[in-house]
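User: Run a structure prediction on this.
Assistant: Running it now.
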Amino acid sequence: MEAVIALSERVQTLEAHPEGMVFTVMRDVDNTLAVDYSDNLDQDLNSYSERGFRVVAYRRGTRREQRLLLLTLKEIGLNSSYGPRYFEAVPTVISHLRQLGWPMGNLLVDRPGKKHAGNRVDDGFH
C-alpha cells in the first residue's frame, strides 16, 4: 500500500509541476557533481554553466525525489563537498547515483580521478 501511495503522490506532483526536472551537472576543473531539481531547467542550467558546470543528464522528476536522494546518500555515508547537493565525481558516488535511478547519462569513471562523459544527454523519455 505504501508503494501505491508513493506512486500516486509522484504522479500528482508531476502533474502539478509539468516542468519539474531532476538533473546532474559536472565541473571538470575540480571533479564536482551537482544533483539538483528545477522548475525552470534552462535558467538553472545557465546558472550552473556560468560557474563552470556542464550538463551530464536530466529527466522529469520532483523536488521530493531530490530530497530523498540526498537523504539516502547521507545515510549511506557519502559526504557532500561544497553543499548538500555537491559531490566528488568518484566511482562510488557515480555507482550509487546510478543504482538510485538518478540521471547520469553515459558518465563513466575508468579509475579514481579519471572521468569521461559523452555528448548525449539522457532526457529520461527513451
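The CA atoms of residues 7 and 19 lie 18 Å apart.
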